[in-house]
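Lab notebook, bench 4. Continuing the backlog of folding jobs that were queued last week. Each job is logged with the same field layout so the records can be merged later without manual cleanup. Today's entry covers Putative C-mannosyltransferase DPY19L3, a 684-residue chain. Filled in by technician R.K.

JOB TYPE: sequence-to-structure
TARGET: Putative C-mannosyltransferase DPY19L3
LENGTH: 684
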Amino acid sequence: MTALRQRKGSKGKEGSQELQKPETTLETKPRIPAGSVLWSVLWSVVGGLVAVSLGLLTCIYVATLHENDLWFSNIKEVEQEISFRTECGLYYSYYKQMLQASSVQEGLFELINDNTTESKRTINLLQRMNIYQEVFLGVLYRILPIQTSLEPVYFYIYTVFGLQTVYVIALYVTSWLLSGTWLSGALTAVWFILNRIDTTRVEFTIPLRENWSIPFLALQVAAITYYLRPQLKPLQQKLALSLIFLSTLTFSLTWQFNQFILLMQALALFALDCLDLVSTGKVTCLYLVQVSSLLLVWLLQFFNPMILGSLALSFIVAALTVNFFQKALQLRSDEHIYKFIKAKFGLGSTRDFDANLYLCEEAFGLLPFDTFERLSDSLVLYPYIWAVSIMTIVATVAAVRNLSDSTNTPFPNGKEEETFLRPAVAYNLSHTVVFGLLAYSTMRMKYLWAGHMCAFAAYGICSDEVWRPFLKVIRLHTTARERLIRYTVPVLLLGFLYYKFSPKLLEEMSELREFYDPDTVDLMNWISTKTSKKAVFAGSMQLLAGVKLCTGRVLTNHPHYEDKSLRERTRQVYQIYARQSPEDVHKILRSFGTDYVILEDSICYERRHNRGCRLRDLLDVSNGHIMDGPGENEVDLTPSPHPRFCDEIRTDQPPYTTYFTRVFTNKTFHVYKLKKGKKKTKSN
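JOB STATUS: finished
OUTPUT FIELD FOLLOWS
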């Protein structure tokens, strides 16, 4: 105040000059030398080139593994299509359908008014399934001048492999933004490649929805990480929000499980907001982006009620609307997910066929212990645990400080850089913890976590926020020592990883195998040449997806399991593997318009699962019958009066020959044609 009065009271020439010339104060930002700016730009350019190079390397790596494993370029078209197993074949068939249509308009009309995916039904596939990517690629292939130089199947698989480039670059950028050095991003990409078994399965499940969507989820996380940086200019914030919106939209449009992932993300943001670790304004903007993306997907999927009634949208909009949406819209499309969750966590036993079908699959079990052994072997698990532990302690201290001090403003003067824990770090910490728990509970979901795990582990190696508190605790902290560790450790680690794993990777890429499934090829060729194009086929979900792709025949059921009526239809069709009379099985199959039924020995005499998880066991329990073989049964289960249909029909004895005629057989498959118009045989 004294200095201020003196300045006001000064007169004459000095006072006049003082008013005219800006005063140099301690708040004036120091001028950064031009050389430092140039070096920073060059260093960033190098980091960007390394990111693109490692992304492309990942793409080439998985493409090479796919080619070497199947000799894909040398096998027949039908073998290429058979290699798209289970639901992968179903999704790829719609890309093929778009290409075979006489025009784009006709292709879209056929997808919107489809009557071949489910017999006796006309469904809107764009509403029911997430296949806009197949539509987009189909249109793109038709308009690009590449038909003579690139086959449709390669255009498809190269696009999916190319998304792995986007995936790795997004993880690279996320770790770079968190740590402040692109060495962290390089370490992220290397760990992603070395842990391929746990970070991606794209090389053998190419059309799977997660291979389309997870790269965009990683891009969204990178954009959120940038958006949560302090003191962004308005234009930078708008650009970041635009990228978040586009990536969230694309992620949601390409995977049916989008709503559950966004729900977990919304819950994480809600917790961060409550703990004052991220500003309410930015959390609100992210909520609005999520809501806008989901609503646009709802419109693009022809008002799909599963999206409008999702818990994610309900939670974001208002908790009180959850019951309204689920009751008013009579939602049942995703009830099997809730039954599965209830049974998985021991909230009551269930005989529900759909829930048990999930529970008995290894992919929906707990994360196996060998996963942690692989992650330890590549040295990613230890720095990950290190980083999560340190930052969890920091986050806890920050949250307690924010909540305990009523006078404490979590974001003083609106400056987020003055907070105890950076919002971007807080978000990524919550993201990796939430999805890590999800991965541990359900093995299939590890692909949502493992990639981000690599990014967070690399951040822990290269970040001063992790090293500084540790060095201070052991009383060895100096700025020079901290900087030395941040840059030396990742370089040494990259060198060690190259020395240890490069021979193994080269050996892996040199291994040559070949696709070999003659029985399935034989079946598909027979169907294509010996049956009507309008013939309706019944069988297992996994096999029928291949039947549709390879032959174009009509199906009774398929692996896209997100519809209540389809799940009930599948359970009915699967009575071919239960203890049912031939008359009842024939009646069920004819109700769906079935002309042919395909029986598989691998299901009828299954040994892969333990007793209680074989498909025939699930059907027996669901029907109230005791299971095959020695072992316990629930007390209220009773013996079935009929033998197992899939086994007994092979005898070709009445009354089975009254309703079914064997028309094809090989070592794996048996095809029976249903006789029509047969009346019930009178008993003597």
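OBSERVATION: Residues 27 and 415 are 15 Å apart (CA to CA).
SIGNED: R.K.
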